Each structure stands twice: as C-alpha cells, then as structure tokens.
Amino acid sequence: MTLDRPSSYNAYTTGTLEELAWAVQEAAFDDKVGVVVLTGAGERAFCTGGDVKEYAEHYTRRPHDYWKYMAHFARAVESLLSCGKPTIARLNGITVGGGNELHLACDLSVAASHIYLGQVGVGVGSVACGGATQWLPLAVGDRRARRMLLLNERVPARRAEEWGLVSQVVPSVRAGDKLLEDPSAEEREFALQRKNGYSIDLGPLDRAVEELSRQLLEKFPECLRYTKAQTNFWKELAWHQTVPHAQEWLSLHFASPEVHEGMGAFVEKRRTQVPALRERRATGDGADYFHGPLTSKCPKCGAGHLPEAMTFCGFCGAPLPPAASSSPSAGGSR
After folding, report:
1. Which terminal Cβ of the chain has fewer Cβ within 10 Å, N or C?
2. How far apart are CA 80 and CA 101, in angstroms?
3. For the whole prediction, is pTM greater than 0.85?
C-alpha cells in the first residue's frame, strides 16, 4: 500500500486515513494476502504526518472537528495494529510525525540509509499522542523517546537501527556505480538532489522487503496472527489507555494560540514566535487567548465576551472601557 502524495511529502489528509483503514481491512479479510507492506511514493518521504495545510485551513477554524479527525487517525493506526497479518513499513524517505506513528504501528520496518525519523509535535503546536508518546518508550527506551518527543531530534537511519527503532537498514545512496553503506549527511543530500554523481537507489530496499516478506510467508498464518496478537499486548494497553483522552484534549487544544501559531508558521515557512507567546504567559498577559481574556462588554450595544485588548467594539464601533488588570500574583510562601 502506497501513500501517494509525493508533492506533499506523502502527508495524509482525512481522506487518506479513511482510505488506508479501508484498504488494510480489505487486506486483512483477503486470504490471498499474507503480508501487508506500507510505503510512500517517491524517494524523499515515507510519510510526514498530517497535512498541516488541512489543519490550518479547517481544524483551526473548527477545532471541535479535530475530535472527528482523530477518530479517523485512530482507525487507520488500529487497522495496522490489529489486521491479523504481519505488516512491514518500507521506509523510503523521511518518516516523521504521524508518519513515524504509522511506522510504529507496523510489526517490522526496513529503512533506506538516506532517511531520518523523528517527531515534530511540540514544534508545531501539537502533541504526538497518536502512537509516539505511547510506543517510543517501548521501542527505544524512556530517555531516547524523550529526546525525540521533547527536542524533535532527527534520528538518521543507522542510529535508528542501533536504537531498535527500525528492524533493518539497507544502502540507498549511490556514488556513481558504488552503493555507500553509511553515507554522510552531505552525501545523502547530494543523492536526493542528484548532484556530483550521487543518486538514490531503492533497489536494495525493495529486495530486502521482498526477502522479509518471503520469510514471513513461509510461516504458518494462524500462528503468525496469534503471535502478533500476543506481542501487541503492551502496545495495545498503552494505546487504549491514552488515545481516547488524547482525542478529547487535542480537539480542545486546537482552539489555542499555540496551534494557530505553530501551524501558521509551518504553512508560511517561517520561524514560530514561541518567545513572544512565552513572554505573554510569563507576564500574565493572556497567553491562552489571542488578544487577551474575553472579559470586555460593550456599554452601547451590549456585545459580550470581547477580548480585553480591544479598545473599540468590533460590532458597533463604540469605545470600550479599559480592562482592569486581573493577573494573579506569582509570589507566595513556600
């Protein structure tokens, strides 16, 4: 199965998630299918998570709809987790955000050597609680998981293999006629840009995935299914204990300035203005709102719940009385 949106780095939309869940179910029920392979189109990205443009255009306008969106995402993840057949993530490119969560939902993964993996949630105003907060500690250990989740560090393929984040890495960077086993960051970039005689060769990746699939197809299918169900115990326990809560929290959080700033900065290709938001929070200047708490009321037309930073009513234009400071003291005894 191929996530086929290469112009968007194979980011998924709501429709993509619906189609993925349906396709995995079809494969689960088809006795002619023995192994499910999930990959992305092209050589730049496996999947970079949700389509941030869709988030910015729709879900920041209608935050309550993010609850519905998370239901689609949960179904897609759970389809991979519980389809009853071995799943392989063929990591042909960047694997970040929700893309890494789809990867974590699979049983095994083979990565091309030019890729990197990571999470981006706290850098774009969200939280990676669609699999990453639950499963990264199981996959790579607590401290490494926190590095990925809190710092959004990129993990190159070879390091991911050392950490146990991927099952196998195969060479994919070619310098002329030679495949490089451990290309440098510069060589990886040259290959992606096809500069200086470098190129990407996904042939070894395909052969490795084919060999892994062949080995799985030699095993008894019902034994594979139950082994997967047993091995899923900790993943499913963590998932079902946290995802419903995450769905509720994210749908509320999508109305916050953090999301608007994070998603807006991504779409506009600029740095986030986190320092300004932190300053507003530190000074008690209403960081939970865009223009201060919704405490003002127009004395002329009676409109209420107006931002306290407004000096004129947005409905009738009448001057508004100055807002009284209500910031609590940060002091106190310990």
Report:
1. C
2. 11
3. yes
Residue 42 has phi, psi (to 5 degrees) of 85, -160
Euclidean distance between CA atoms 297 and 320, whole angstroms: 7
- The Cα–Cα gap between 234 and 138 comes to 8
Look-up of token digits 């969560």: 101
Transcribe 96-108 into DSSP letters.
Answer: ETHHHHHHHHSSE
pLDDT (tens digit per residue) in 197-229: 999 999 999 999 999 999 999 999 999 999 999
Cα(161)–Cα(163) distance, rounded to whole angstroms? 5
Question: For the segment 88-114, what is each residue's pLDDT rounded down to a tens digit?
Answer: 999 999 999 999 999 999 999 999 999
Neighbours of 57 (CB within 10 A): 12
Residue 7 DSSP symbol: G
What letter would DSSP give residue 182?
S
Helix (H, G, I), strand (E, B) or coil at 188: helix
Helix (H) or strand (E) holding 94: strand 94-96
Which parts of the chain sit beneath pLDDT 70? Answer: 286, 324-334
3-state secondary structure at position 56: helix
Length of the chain equals 334
